[in-house]
Backbone:
């Protein structure tokens, strides 16, 4: 119950914003999904999945100004052009090959 309350605290408090679905898959574990946002997480137990979902919801709802902008130097170091979305026949960057 404590894990479920953590999820509720991470939402807006509106009952319409509180729908969470928890499922179990053999060999995978539990997954918890916040239906209104589609944010999901998983864990070995239902409680772990709900706690992870609460953390994911907090990060999801964090204001955009807290987001870290991409570092252009990272793209350059790895031979990537952030404006180029075409893969085509280009070889993979060294760190992926």
Residues:
């Amino acid at each position: 119950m404590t894990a479920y309350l953590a999820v509720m605290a991470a939402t807006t408090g509106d009952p319409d914003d509180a729908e969470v679905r928890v499922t179990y898959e053999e060999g995978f574990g539990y997954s918890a999904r916040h239906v209104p946002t589609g944010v999901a997480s998983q864990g070995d137990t239902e409680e772990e999945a709900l706690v992870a979902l609460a953390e994911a919801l907090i990060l999801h709802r964090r204001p955009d100004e807290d987001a870290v902008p991409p570092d252009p130097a990272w793209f350059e170091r790895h031979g990537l052009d952030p404006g180029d979305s075409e893969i085509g026949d280009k070889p993979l960057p060294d760190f992926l090959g």
